[in-house]
Amino acid sequence: MNRRSELRRYHAHVWDEPIVMQMGQKGERGMMLAEVEDAIKRTVGEAASYIPQNMQRKGQPRLPEMSQPHVLRHYLRLSQETLGMAFNIDIGMGTCTMKYSPQVNEELVRLPGFADLHPYQDEETVQGILEIIYHFARFMSEISGMKEFTFQPGGGAHGIYTNACMIREYHKTNGELDRNEIISTLFSHPADAACPATAGFKIITLYPDPETGLPNIEALKAAVSKHTAGFMVTNPEDTGIFNPSINEFVDIIHEAGGLCSYDQANSNALFGIARAKEAGFDMCHFNIHKAFSSPHGCMGPACGAVGVAEALSEYLPVPIVTYDGSRYHLDYNRPNSIGKVRAFLGNIETVVRAYAWIMSMGSEGLRQVSETAIINTNYLIRKISDVPGVSMAYPKQRIRLDQVRFSLEKLKEDTGVDTDDVARRIVDFGVQEYFTSHHPWVVPEPFLPEPCDTYSKEDIDYWVNIIRRISEEAYKNPEIIRTAPHNQPISKIKVEALNDPSKWALTWRAYLRKHKREN
Amino acid sequence: MTRESKRKLGLIVNPISGMGGSVGLKGTDGEKILKKAIELGAKPTSPSRAIEALNEVLPIKNHIELITYPRDMGEAEAQACGFEPKVIGTLEEGETSPEDTRDAARAMLRSEVDLILFVGGDGTARDIQEVIGDKLPVLGVPAGVKIHSGVFAINPRSAGLLAVAYLQDKLSTQESEVMDIDEEAFRHNRVSAKLYGYLRVPYENQMIQGTKTGSAASEKGDIQSIAWEIIDDMEDDYLYVIGPGTTTKAIMRQLGLKYALLGVDAIRQKRLVASDVNEKQLLALVEKNKTKIIVTVIGGQGHIFGRGNQQISSRVIEKVGKDNIVIIATENKIATLRGRPLLVDTDSPEVNKLLKGYSRIVTGYGKYIMYRVA
Asked: Which residue of A186, A436, A439, A447 to mutate against B (max B Cβ within 10 Å)?
């Protein structure tokens, strides 16, 4: 075994920190503010007088009273108890594309020319950022073949929702109000069903063929009707399997009068290889915070870039950044627009990082990203193939692109250890819990690694060796897995309460009310 | 598990199950199973299968009280495994009968066991269902030749593991079908199963993450939302034929109508037209009305027609037409088929063929899947 992939000892920080609300004591202060000077007092009056009577609080807020060092110590300890992407080999988070984001781009978004901008500034005074947005849209057009882009949506699902709204608007404009069904596939991201459902559509899901893992074209033919509004699909799907006849699916939908929306959150394996336009799609979305190397930032700030073919650009959210040959403008004059989907222009810091990343990679570099991601995935598949109890779902599909779905069904049959157990054990080796898969688990006891382009061979070897070690443990000493984690700040918890809304407390006040019977 | 209140596991073995004595069994099958059982050192199959399941319960032996029936109805198997069971009831000499199974079930009820683990086939499940109904959770160790009911674990080992998990409060229960060969149909050279009722069965939802296991609530929610979808889509000039099953009858419950859980009801304009109809009555109704048939997947093998709903015969289906058949099922139920197609087994090959292909299944409110019918 390569010495560099030998498993190292690991133990997380364990601080057993109380909740901040339980800390400090009465009268303890982090900062003592000086009295307001008389001259100021005389001029502006009492601060409280500026707050309308009915908005003034009756009692003191129940906040913890703490000194600065205690506050600092508390939050630093908590930060030590996390396992962020930059700490670990984050291969286990399939569909999330946890790639390394170059630190230099963090410097760029902190430059005052960007960081000090205010969203209410006149467009004349923000020509620089408008130029970046405009050119980034041209990059995205080149990558996807779509004509125009918006970066307003604050995340992937929000991008999909934006597309669903545009599909709705398109049929409404054409007077076809009874087109109320969206077709998706089971291994597409669940947002491809949930978002159009939120936009008021009925959802028809195509189930995967048990042999190929792909949706069946006959099922699609049976699904389309005069009610078909559109098709919202991920490709490669969340199995890492690319649907090679996707253009035929698109044709069937078009013949039925629907629009086709391409969920490209899994685009990391497609740069310079395949585009939405050539497959016939009308619209698409990318997760700028995934494949384009902007950090995920713990559920935000993210950016779902939405692109549409020329015929649909009138429906895009406003404003769109345009260029007249000398100046950049915010174009609000688009009567068929679905309106705004988010304040201002969206999370533009995400765009700045991605712009810098694309500029540094170039078109050749982007293609290399995808080729490396595909090689990494297939290297991992070969490497893991002899680990007892692990099997790849749909083994007849030998090549996977950005990610790969495995099953631990055999491990469970042999040892009783299931994928939840392994997901809890894996953190004992200093890597993040892995993603099993979206529900329902059509592949039993699943897990879904995605060794994207920024992981080295040693990283992949190391990660596979963790899975190998856990497999050995399962056959020799399954108890150590069932009772895991052992090296983390929090041990195995009882999960029953997670299903019981009466026990949930999302705020301290809710905790006191539900668990301490205080009001 | 606390020391003062040991959980009670009831064990009922049907020692003659799977020996080929009952109707509907393929003779050679029975012979082979019998032979295999002899090789394993047990005469019939069920004792060895009981032992296989009990072996998985051994690790919590000291935390539970095993209560069982005399001799080879549980006592012998439990002792062979190293348990010291509490034996209740009495047995006559000679071969055991279905009445013995029912007696044993009654005794378990009196002993207030937490779970009945029974070893047998569909016939045994039926006997236990008759006595227990929904009063106690029950889990089947498959030992019969024909297993149509949904109350059985996949194999004896997983039955044992499920029982342990249930006794450790890790699982909740769900209602599962008890089915058995319809002897009348069998006499007409058809193998078709009848739905006899439901038992509460410990349930491990393999389709979702462990943290969500035990969310029988979400399964109930899905059934509820399917009912709303059907009701909101109802048209006044149609007759709706509601097939058997808990999924379909949620529609009746939602409408506040009386229904036959195991039978076929007909409604129109959200009012009851006829309850628990037979084929003849159904034919008469569909002659006179534009009709939609609402059925669900019955049994573990994925049947939508020909199991437990024979009243909706090929003649009825032909009359109503393929386009007016509405299939409803929770996604969970579909996922348990592991990609296997839905099945149709009516007495007419033409009708079986007619229903082939991809069909739309209602899985929730405004939610459908396309799924293959073979």
From this structure: A439
Q: Is residue A166 part of a domain?
A: yes
Same domain for A139 and A75? no
Check pLDDT > 70 for residue A506.
Answer: yes
Interface test with A, best of B168, B208, B209, B362 (most A CBs within 10 A): B209
How far CA A374 is from CA of A371, A436, A443, A466, in Å, comes to 5, 20, 22, 21
Tell which residue, A477, A501, A364, has the closest CA to residue A425: A477
- pLDDT confidence bin for B212, thresholds 50/70/90: very low
Ranges A213-217, A306-310, B219-223, B360-364: which has the least confidence: B219-223
Domain count, chain A: 2
CATH class as words, domain B7-204 = alpha beta
A418 CB neighbours in chain B (<8 A) are: 210
Do A440 and B332 count as a contact with CB atoms less than 8 A apart?
yes
Amino acid making up residue A263: D
Q: Are residues A140 and A244 in the same domain?
A: yes
Task: Kindly state whether residues A193 and A314 are assigned to the same domain.
Answer: yes
Q: What is the domain range of residue A352?
A: 132-358
ipTM field? 0.88
Q: Are residues A75 and A164 in the same domain?
A: no
The answer to whether B367 faces chain A, any CB pair under 8 Å, is: yes
Who has greater pLDDT, B149 or A240? A240
Domain finish residue from A80, A97, A121: A80
Whether residue A312 lies inside any domain: the answer is yes
Does the predicted TM-score (pTM) go above 0.80? Answer: yes
Contact state of B369 with A204 under an 8 Å Cβ cutoff = yes
Q: Is the CB of residue A274 less than 8 Å from the CB of residue A401? A: no
**In this complex, is the C-beta atom of A493 within 8 Å of any C-beta atom belonging to chain B?**
no
3-state per-residue secondary structure call for B1-50: CCCCCCEEEEEEECCCCCCCCCCCCCHHHHHHHHHHHHHCCCCCHHHHHH
pLDDT, tens digit (0-9, with 9 covering 90-100), for A147-206: 999 999 999 999 999 999 999 999 999 999 999 999 999 999 999 999 999 999 999 999
Interface of B with A in 317-336 (CB under 8 A): 331-332, 334-335
CATH code: domain of residue A305: 3.40.640.10
Residue A473 has pLDDT above 70, yes or no: yes
Which residues, numbered 315 to 334 in chain A, qualify as contacts with chain B under a Cβ-Cβ cut-off of 8 Å? none
Task: Give the residue-averaged pLDDT of A215-220.
Answer: 97
Q: How close B334 comes to chain A (CA, Å)?
A: 9
Which residues of chain B have a CB within 8 Å of the CB of A393? Answer: none
Q: Please choose, from the candidates B210, B50, B48, the residue with its C-alpha nearest in 3D space to the C-alpha of residue B140.
A: B50
| Phi and psi torsions of B326, nearest 5° | -110, 120
- CA–CA separation, A356 vs A111, rounded Å? 13
A186 touches chain B (CB under 8 A): yes
Q: Which of B161, B207, B370 sits opposite A219 (nearest CB)?
A: B370
Going from the C-alpha of A209 to that of each of A249, A292, A443, the distances in angstroms are 15, 32, 12
Q: Which residue of chain B comes nearest to A221, CA vs CA?
A: B358
Q: Is B272 in the A-facing interface, judged by CB distances under 8 Å?
A: no
